[in-house]
């Protein structure tokens, strides 16, 4: 059996091998391909934004879609990129972003006001 990585210490490699052997004995061993298929898929910002626009119960007005796309292009992509997994973004990171770059714009719409004012 070949390990998926090279180990620095022999004891680490032996431990990995013991875990694989136990999984085989219990009938729980999965091939690397099966493990990959079971691994949770990333949900990138781009995928999330695309789903947000397309999976709505009612069609958005053209002006709304245009505004969302402009915010996406000018505010979100330059700061966060498009390939970031949304599950890795923390509340504190969003808060810092809203207080920093967005706060500096002095926009008065609800999306950039502190939660206590817009919630």
Topology:
Blueprint: H1 10-25, H2 32-38, H3 45-54, H4 62-80, H5 91-105, H6 115-118
- Mean pLDDT level: 82
Per DSSP E runs of 2 or more residues, the count of β-strands stands at 0
Q: Between the first and last Cα atoms, what is the distance in angstroms?
A: 56 Å
Alpha-beta content class: mainly alpha
Q: Secondary-structure element sequence? A: HHHHHH
Number of contiguous helices: 6
Give the overall shape: elongated
What attributes does this structure have?
119 residues; 0% strand; 6 helices; mainly alpha; single chain
What does this entry look like structurally?
- This protein is mostly helical and 119 residues long.
- The chain is 60% helix and 0% strand.
- The protein is built from six helices and no strands.
- It has helices at residues 10-25, 32-38, 45-54, 62-80, 91-105, 115-118.
- The longest helix is centred in the middle third of the chain and has 19 residues, at 62-80.
- It is elongated, with a radius of gyration of 23 Å.
- The mean pLDDT is 82.
In short:
By secondary structure, the protein is an all-alpha fold. Helix content is 60%, strand content 0%. The chain contains six helices and no strands.
């Amino acid at each position: 059996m070949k390990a998926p990585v090279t180990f620095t210490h022999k004891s680490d490699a032996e431990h990995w091998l013991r875990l694989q052997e136990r999984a085989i004995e219990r009938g729980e061993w999965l091939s690397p391909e099966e493990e990959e298929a079971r691994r949770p898929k990333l949900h990138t910002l781009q995928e999330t934004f695309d789903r947000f626009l397309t999976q709505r119960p009612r069609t958005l007005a053209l002006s709304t879609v245009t505004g969302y796309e402009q915010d996406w292009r000018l505010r979100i992509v330059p700061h966060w990129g498009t390939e970031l997994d949304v599950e890795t973004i923390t509340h504190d990171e969003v808060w810092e972003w809203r207080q920093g770059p967005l706060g500096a714009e002095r926009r008065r719409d609800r999306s950039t006001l502190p939660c206590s004012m817009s919630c």
